[in-house]
Amino acid sequence: MWPRVLSLLCVLALIAGSQLAFAHHSFTAEFDAQRPITLKGVVAKWEMINPHGWITLDVSEAGKVTQWMIETSNPNGLMRLGWTKNSLKPGDEVTIDAYLAKDGSSTANASRITLADGRKVFAGSATTPQDAPTASPDGK
Predict the structure, then answer these.
(1) Which CATH number is 26-122 given?
(2) pLDDT given for residue 106 in this prediction
(3) What CA–CA distance (Å, rounded) separates 71 from 134?
(4) Which of 90, 80, 86 is nearest to 122 (CA)?
């Protein structure tokens, strides 16, 4: 009886794990690599959270402010690139090279971020189109 119960539990664990894997999206499912955009604005919020970090960016154009949601890599990937929770602060002026969301919303996936001091840092995931990173966000 115990082998059957153990087998059933293993099968249920595999099914539950596969559902989580399917819930996660790929870059190409949500973003368009053929539609790059450069956004210059002021950081309103920086969240280094799972499954992806998010930068809320206020972009002013023609007197109108649009709030953009910029997806970055996952926290583990960002930390390996030198990012910390203090890498961006509200009020920081940044320029973000990104790829537009396919749904037409003010959402994009970050590739490279130019910080106020001119350093260019990579913030995308492994599947984000990119150039070679030049520095970490903390200058290391």
Answers:
(1) 2.40.50.140
(2) 96
(3) 20
(4) 80
